[in-house]
Amino acid sequence: MEDARRLGEIIGIDWTGSRFDIDEFHMGLQVELEHGRRDPETNVTDDDRTLTAKIARAHMNEFPDYYTRLARMEADAERFWKHR
User: Fold this and answer.
1) d(CA 36, CA 40)
2) Which Pfam families does the entry mention (predicted)?
């Protein structure tokens, strides 16, 4: 978690005045690794931690609970597509 805090500070997040939750940001960092080396077809960050953090921040700028909502949506989609 300290790593997420430090990465957030590197990209300009002030945790004392931020509407972002460190746990949500940490979740975002894990999710956005999908844009890295994990899948060569969608690799845009090459696992660069700063770029990954910026992607997470961009989504959280839209909705501070972006990754919580994403997790719910993905769970719903998995249930839906399981029977198709």
Assistant:
1) 8
2) DUF5661 (PF18905)
